[in-house]
């Protein structure tokens, strides 16, 4: 591999890793608070993409301006899912919880397929160049914006969890649910907020991808497995770990694509996954942030 190709692949991987991180952070918040592995995270991301697409197609709204709308819509959807379905499964065996979220995923994807058909859809940001050239390295403008958003949003979320009353309540519920309830925290309300927040983060990730990635009912399936790998790599329930894990997986996938033919680039991602499970099953950061 030439030096230029290596740098290009490294940059592409870091930029795409930011998106993986954002999807995985929503997943890790849900797991950290509720101890539920949410298979529907990719489907919720897909719904966020469709919110952005239809706002663009009908109202001509710039996709970046639709970020607050898609986040609010999916926050409400997430709260509704938690309140109507998952709240009844909190004490169920883990495999039942997992199957329920898998069922939610299949329902959302097939409902979207009925409504929107399997066509690939895309949006265009007027006046924004597709790439920026810097020292013979081409950087996708959409990916760069998405990466900067992901880093900024992760930093904001980290501050929120560390320094606000609600953020501390979420962390307390994550660490010790019974102890949190004993000091007056409404843990049921925290469940609603956590699932809504995780869904909103998935929607933001989807919105940020619409300028450079297709929108279709099955698009979430391409990201949910990578999100699980990122979460395991970073440590279940660890926000900072999810960010670092996403960047690692993005770079591994990109470098793998540069040296391996076709779909074999995915081999690097799952090789890392297997190695982490074998030698560091609690993830790089060993679990939850304290």
Can you offer a commentary on this structure?
This protein is mostly helical and 290 residues long. Helices cover 70% and strands 3% of the residues. It contains 11 helices and 2 strands. Helix 1 (3-34) runs antiparallel to helix 10 (239-259) and helix 2 packs across helix 3.
* Main beta-sheet annotation: 2 strands, antiparallel
Number of strands: 2
Residues in β-strands, percent? under 5%
Radius of gyration: 19 Å
Mean pLDDT: 89
| Global geometry | globular
Number of helices: 11
Derived structural class: mainly alpha
User: Termini, distance in Å?
Assistant: 41 Å
Q: Show unreliable segments.
A: none
How much helicity do the residues have? over 70%
Describe the strand arrangement of the main beta sheet, using strand numbers.
1-2
The helix-strand sequence is HHHHEEHHHHHHH
Task: Output the keywords.
290 residues; 3% strand; mainly alpha; single chain; 70% helix
State the gist of this model.
The protein is mainly alpha-helical. Helix content is 70%, strand content 3%. The longest helix has 32 residues, at 3-34.
Task: Summarize the helices and strands and which ones pair or pack.
Elements: H1 3-34, H2 41-59, H3 67-84, H4 94-116, E1 131-134, E2 137-140, H5 141-163, H6 165-175, H7 177-182, H8 187-209, H9 221-234, H10 239-259, H11 266-279
Antiparallel strand pairs: 1-2
Helix pairs in contact: 1-5, 1-8, 1-9, 1-10, 2-3, 2-4, 2-8, 3-8, 5-6, 6-8, 9-10, 9-11, 10-11
């Amino acid at each position: 591999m030439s030096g230029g190709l290596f740098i290009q692949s490294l940059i592409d991987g870091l930029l795409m890793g930011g998106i993986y991180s954002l999807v995985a952070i929503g997943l890790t918040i849900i797991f950290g608070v509720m101890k539920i592995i949410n298979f529907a995270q990719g489907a919720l991301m897909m719904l966020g993409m469709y919110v952005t697409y239809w706002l663009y197609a009908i109202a001509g709204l710039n996709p970046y301006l639709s970020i607050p709308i898609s986040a609010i819509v999916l926050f409400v959807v997430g709260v509704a899912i938690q309140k109507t379905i998952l709240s009844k499964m909190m004490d169920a065996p883990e495999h039942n919880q997992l199957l329920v979220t898998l069922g939610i995923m299949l329902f959302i994807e097939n409902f979207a397929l009925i409504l929107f058909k399997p066509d690939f859809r895309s949006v265009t940001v007027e006046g924004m160049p597709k790439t920026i050239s810097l020292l013979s390295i081409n950087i996708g403008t959409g990916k760069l914006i998405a990466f900067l958003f992901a880093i900024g949003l992760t930093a904001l979320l980290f501050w929120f969890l560390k320094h606000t009353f609600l953020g501390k309540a979420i962390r307390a519920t994550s660490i010790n649910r019974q102890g949190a309830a004993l000091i007056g925290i409404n843990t049921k309300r925290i469940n609603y907020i956590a699932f809504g927040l995780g869904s909103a983060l998935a929607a933001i990730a989807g919105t940020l991808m619409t300028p450079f990635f297709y929108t279709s009912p099955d698009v979430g399936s391409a990201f949910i497995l990578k999100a699980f790998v990122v979460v395991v790599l970073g440590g279940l329930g660890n926000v900072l770990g999810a960010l670092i894990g996403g960047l690692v997986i993005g770079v591994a996938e990109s470098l793998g694509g540069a040296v391996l033919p076709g779909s074999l680039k995915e081999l690097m991602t799952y090789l890392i996954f297997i190695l982490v499970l074998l030698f560091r099953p609690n993830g790089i950061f060993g679990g939850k942030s304290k």
